[in-house]
Amino acid sequence: MTPSRILIVEDEAIVAMDLKLHLQELGYGAVDLAGSGEEALEAAARQAPDLVLMDISLGSGMDGIVAARHLQNLGIPVVFLTAFADEQTLARAKESGPYGYLLKPFDERTLHSTVEMAFYRHRMEQELKASESRLRAIIEHALDLVVILDRSGQVVYSSPAAGRVLGYQAGERLGTSAVDLIHPGDRALFQKAFLDLSQTPGSSRTLEIRVLHRDGTPRLMEAISHNALDVPGVHGIVVNARDVTERRQAEQDRQDMESKVQQAQKLESLGVLAGGIAHDFNNLLMGIMGHAGLALMDPDLQPAMQRRLNQIEMAATRAAELTNQLLAYSGRGKFHVEPLSLSRLVDEMESLLETVISKKALLEHRFAPDLPLIDGDATQVRQVIMNLITNASDALQDRVGRITISTGTVETGTLTHCLAGTPPDGTSVYLEVADTGSGMDADTLQRIFDPFFTTKFTGRGLGLAAVLGIMRGHHGAVQVLSCPGEGTSFRLLFPRSEEVIPVEPWEDRPLDAYFSHGDILVVDDEEAVRSVASLTLEGCGFRVQTAGDGREGLQVYREHAEQIRAVVLDLTMPVLGGDEVLAELRNSIGPGATVPVLLSSGYSSSDIAGNLQRCGPIQFLQKPYSPLDLIQKIRACLGE
User: Fold this and answer.
1) CATH label of the domain that carries residue 352
2) Residues 472 and 361 occupy one common structural domain
3) Which of 350, 406, 466, 614 qualifies as a cystine partner to 366, CB 3.0-4.6 A?
4) 287 and 179, same structural domain?
5) 30 with 170, same domain?
6) 362 phi, psi to nearest 5 deg
7) Is pLDDT larger for residue 414 or for residue 215?
8) Does 248 map to a domain?
9) Pick the residue with more confidence: 445 or 14?
10) Residues 376, 231 within the same domain
């Protein structure tokens, strides 16, 4: 097959070269460039491209719309790539008959689908024109099948095309009833249409109907029928039909693809919003948790005040858990990945799970022996399990029922059906939560991962949307089976870990009294964070320097570089971000190149995993953190 030749018309050279590289990466053939409308017409006449990708605005000369009109006369399809979306431009563009209209910026997937659909539409139009030309010739040479039926509905003529399309030999169906060729599910439709048409001389009727191939498979036919019973030499119902099975399937595939793209874009937009809210909320919680933690460290604290502070700290901790759900939904909630055993994780949660389920529910375990490990964040996986167990308990609706937690392995791949996420290739480790509750209908199943959708009372939060976010962060997928009145089963599919020994869970231990010396620089745009960090570190004997943004932080560091032993640096700040400050420190000649840096953020540690790793080993502390968390990290930075 000859590779497709594509002509790019774009007056911005960098944009044109970038587009050319994308097309070549997608496997298209020769890609040529033109910088103006005049050059486009010359190149088209010389090279006869299969498709032209045209910018509308092309400098002072001929614009893309005028050039497209000339190309239309040459039969060359045009797809507009432009930043213009106003009604006037759209109206002008329509006159040139474009095969697509892409607004900049666009992603590679959208470009690929638009180019493919333009090629497809152009091919279909060319076939239609060829068909119309053949219809003007002798009917036996027609591309579409032609059948003539008498008043009783018997076949009195069928064109050679009918045999090719439906697999019959020439003349094989003559004298037989046409209704026998119709799919049983469409026979009533065919008989009614035939009766209506035969009673009205000169009338026509169009319908789509399934016709049986000789091998018994249905083919979707687009048929135009005309009553020529009174026409001399015909005396019958003339049916001109075209097989549109593949075309309808392609249209359905395109619609499905567009629906998936729109859903992905919606989820991505909501994820960005959720992540931003979580980040800002974590900064606010820092002031609450930090000052409560500092107050609890006071040796002279009265018991009554200690109880109140504990309640404040507990409430702030629960609020932080809500922000973790937002981070999980946004895909930015992966904190600490380690080899985990799903069976062991559930076993450790036994007592907690018993407290959250209905008193009438029986909790059963079915753990696979020698279960492979997964690479995951224990906190997030526990959250997923808790969400699914809570939903299963709610589904029982205070009735006696059973909730079963199972683990095991299963082979998965691209053909594995999942309601959400991408199934891993190869062996997947699964965790399944099944209940004998009320179940869900098909419409509810399609919406369960939408944020804030619920079948319960209003205001239940992110729910399964958070589960989906966590599974996306773990490169996993979710299978759901449910039927009204028969219960629901959620199966989580995780990629199998290469490790064979699980990491022992870290246990909190009270820190011994810690005192040190020297200067610590705290750079954060939130005053509450600077206050908590300063009071905590000063209580350990440090002298604390503070800065409210990155630029001020660099200035303070340069003035006190010899005394500063470590830097506590916020990742997201105005003026100069934490990543830029870190790069400046590491690129400097002197103490800044080796000074320990403790990065802090309202987002998760996954945000520092990319380009910041080039700056060497980095300690990370997620907000909101307690004074003890900060002390422990500073000790790790200083090696004390």
Assistant:
1) 3.30.565.10
2) yes
3) 406
4) no
5) no
6) -100, 125
7) 215
8) no
9) 14
10) no
Residue 175 pLDDT greater than 80, yes or no = yes
DSSP letter assigned to residue 452: T
Last residue of a domain, one of 101, 125, 149: 125
572/466 same-domain check: no
Kindly report the CATH number assigned to the domain that includes residue 227: 3.30.450.20
Residue 160 has pLDDT above 60, yes or no: yes
Domain extent, residue 534, equals 256-300+509-640
Cα separation, 155 vs 238, in Å, equals 10
Q: What CA–CA distance (Å, rounded) separates 385 from 326?
A: 17
Q: What are the tens digits of pLDDT across the range 103-129?
A: 888 888 888 898 889 888 888 888 877
User: DSSP of 17-35, one letter per residue?
Assistant: HHHHHHHHHTT---EEEES
H/E stretch holding 71: helix 64-73
Which positions ≥6 away from 449 have C-beta within 8 Å?
419, 420, 464, 465, 467, 468, 478
Number of independent structural domains in the chain: 4
Q: Is 450 helix (H, G, I), strand (E, B) or coil?
A: coil
**Length of the chain in terms of residues written:** 640
- Indicate the DSSP class of residue 19: H
Give residues with Cβ within 8 angstroms of 555, minimum separation 6: 547
- On whether the CB atoms of residues 85 and 79 are closer than 8 A, the answer is no
Residue 611 reports pLDDT greater than 70: no
Could you give the strand order of the β-sheet that contains 487-495, starting from the edge strand earlier in sequence?
A: 361-366, 401-412, 426-435, 487-495, 477-483, 420-421
For residue 304, give both structure tokens: 């009554």
Spatial separation of the C-alpha atoms in residues 33 and 14, rounded to whole Å: 11
Does residue 10 sit in the same domain as residue 102? yes
**Helices (runs of H) and strands (runs of E) counted in the chain:** 18, 23
Same domain, residue pair 519 and 632: yes
Together in a domain, 388 and 282: no
What predicted TM-score, i.e. pTM, was given to this entire model?
A: 0.38
Do 299 and 340 meet the contact criterion of CB atoms below 8 Å apart? Answer: no
CB atoms within 10 A of CB 330: 26
Q: Is residue 632 part of a domain?
A: yes
Query: Average per-residue pLDDT in the chain?
Result: 79
Strands 426-435 and 401-412: antiparallel
Q: Is the pLDDT of residue 335 over 60?
A: no
**What pLDDT was estimated at residue 459?**
39
Percent of the chain with pLDDT over 90: 3
pLDDT band at residue 543 using 50, 70 and 90 as cut-offs: very high
